[in-house]
Structures are given as C-alpha cells and as structure tokens.
Specification:
It is built from 16 helices and 3 strands. The protein is mainly alpha-helical. It folds into 2 domains: about 140 residues, no CATH class; about 140 residues, Intergrase catalytic core (hpI Integrase, Chain A). Helix 3 packs across helix 6, helix 4 packs across helix 6 and helix 9 crosses helix 13. The longest helix is centred in the first third of the chain and has 20 residues. The protein starts with 5 loop residues before the first helix and ends with a helix. This is Integrase. It holds the Pfam family Phage_integrase. Keywords: DNA integration, DNA recombination, DNA-binding. InterPro entries: CB, DNA_brk_join_enz, Integrase-like_cat_sf, Integrase_catalytic, Integrase_recombinase_N, Integrase_SAM-like_N, Tyrosine_recombinase_XerCD.
C-alpha cells in the first residue's frame, strides 16, 4: 500500500480545473485507490465545509473508507464514474453482513463502523463532483440503519477503574488519565497540551475544528500537572502518539486488574461528563465543559442512574 503524502494532496489542490478533472477521471476509470484517496483528502481540506480545519482523525477515517470502497467497487463491477442507482445500497448491505475482524469480537461489523465507511464513500463522491469528474450520487438514497444500542450502553464510562488504574501509572501517564477522566478532555486534546496552556486553575484547550475553550481544573488534576516537566523543547507535556499513549494505558489497566475493562480513552471522558451531570443536573453546563456544540451530543456522554426521577414522581 502506497502512503499518501501531504505534498501529493497539496499538489492536487493547486492544479487547474481541467488538470484536476483529468486526474480524477483517470483515477476513477482505473480504480487507482491511492490517487482517489488524494482527491478525497484534497477536497476535504480545501472544498469541504470545515476545509483545512477538518480533523486528522476524520481524514484518517475517510482514507481507510476509500481504500475499502474502491476495491469493492472494482470486484463488484461498479463503474465509479457511472454507478448504478442501487450500487450505494449494495455496498451498505455488504458492509452490514461482513464479518468483523476486531480482536476478541465475533459477528458482523458494528453499525458505527458501517456508518464510518459509508461516510467515507460519500466523501469520495463529493470529491469527484468537486473535481468535475462526475455528478453521480450513488449514496443519495442509501440508508445506514442506526445502532439501536445507545453508545453509553455499549461503551459506558469508567467509574471505580480510574482510581484503581492511577496507582499503576507513572506521573505523566497519571496526568493524561486525569486530564481525560476529570478535566473531560479528548485524548488528542490532552496529548497536544503545552506548558503555556496552563494558567493556574484554568487550562486553554485547542479542540476539534479549531475551537478553543477554557477548562477549569480540579485540585487532583492541578497537582498532577504542577511539577510535570515538559516532554519536549517546545513545551509539550506529552511526546507520545495516540497509539503509544493507548499502549501505555492498556498496560496500566492490565496491571490494575482491569485489563478486560479497557475501552479506550473516550470512556474516561464519559466518566467526567457523568460525574459532572450528577453534580449539576444540567446538560448545558456539562456540554460547555466537554466542548460540545450540541446538547444532544452531551446526552450520549452521561450514564443516567436508574429511577433518576423517583423523588420527583413520588407525590404525583
């Protein structure tokens, strides 16, 4: 598999309209996956709504999706520039019945994975229209059924695991866990923190889409960060990639006897949202703390207690 270089994507952005169209048409006609990935990323970073602020995570997900869809289209006899009106639905159906390859899991691909792959394929066709290669929209009438199981049920927040695992972390790893579980940061936000972002009990966080927010830090988080030296010359607190951080945290969970409970860093962020909601009973304040633009998103981060309104209905 050929890696897609940033320079290749930038080169496509600066082509003339005619040259870009020729490149996209040729790539689609020959099922040139690498070039079609480049066209998709070029569109996402210069022609989409978020443009250059599109998150690296989204770009990586779409790259993976295009690399899945194009070979499938070739195997299935789909002409990328002139797809049939039912080809989008055929791809969705194939994904829904495809066996999962996730470690330790059985069954078919999850609804979230199917949705991610379809979103990437849709982005490819938006990119081809942007490049002037086709007006086809094979996914216009293709529907991805939502997962009936709420995300908070499938991936609930860590609760007692947090304190147990902290005892098996070194100072830097403990700070990372507290930033996610107590300060509510996304792990990518935490990994990008610099010493200059800390101002007393406040932390300046550079979030998704270039948004900046100020997050209050509790005393445990402040104590964890207080004497933590920079990990690099430019003041970064962490010099780990996401995968390096994940590997270290997985080992800490295992050492604490919670190896099977490891569900990624997002469950730590849900820990923060759940605890703050239980203290405030206010989704709006929790959403502002977590950096959500919609309260509907915040609801998916809070594990509500059963019979949460028992006292309120007692005297109905």
């Amino acid at each position: 598999m050929t890696l897609v270089r940033t320079s290749d994507t930038l080169a496509l952005i600066h082509l003339t309209d005619q040259a870009l169209r020729v490149r996209a048409v040729e790539a689609a006609s020959t099922y040139d996956t690498d070039t079609l990935v480049q066209v998709t990323l070029a569109y996402m970073t210069s022609g989409s709504r978020k443009g250059a602020r599109t998150s690296p995570k989204t770009l990586a997900a779409y790259r993976l999706a295009v690399r899945d869809f194009v070979p499938w289209a070739q195997r299935s006899g789909v002409q990328l520039l002139r797809p049939g009106r039912r080809d989008g639905g055929r791809y969705v159906a194939e994904l829904q019945t495809r066996p999962t390859q996730a470690r330790g899991r059985t069954g078919t691909l999850s609804a979230a994975t199917v949705a991610q792959y379809v979103a990437g394929a849709r982005a490819l066709y938006r990119a081809l229209r942007w490049a002037g290669a086709t007006e086809a929209q094979p996914f216009e009438d293709a529907h991805v059924p939502p997962d009936p199981t709420p995300g908070i049920v499938k991936n609930p927040p860590y609760m007692r695991e947090v304190d147990d695992v902290l005892g098996h972390c070194d100072a830097r790893l403990a700070a990372l866990l507290l930033l996610c579980a107590h300060a509510g940061l996304r792990v990518t936000e935490a990994l990008n923190i610099r010493l200059g972002d800390l101002q007393g009990a406040q932390l300046t966080v550079h979030g998704k889409g270039g948004k900046v927010r100020r997050v209050p830090l509790g005393r445990r988080v402040r104590a964890a960060l207080q004497d933590l030296p920079a990990a690099s010359a430019d003041g970064e607190l962490f010099d780990w990639t996401y995968h390096q951080a994940q590997y270290r945290m997985r080992l800490a969970f295992r050492a604490a006897g919670h190896g099977p409970a490891w569900r990624g860093f997002h469950a730590a962020r849900k820990h923060s949202g759940t605890r703050l909601y239980r203290a405030t009973k206010d989704f709006t304040r929790v959403g502002l703390f977590l950096g959500h633009s919609s309260v509907d998103t915040t609801r998916r981060y809070v594990a509500l207690e059963e019979n949460d309104v028992q006292n309120e209905v007692e005297d109905f």
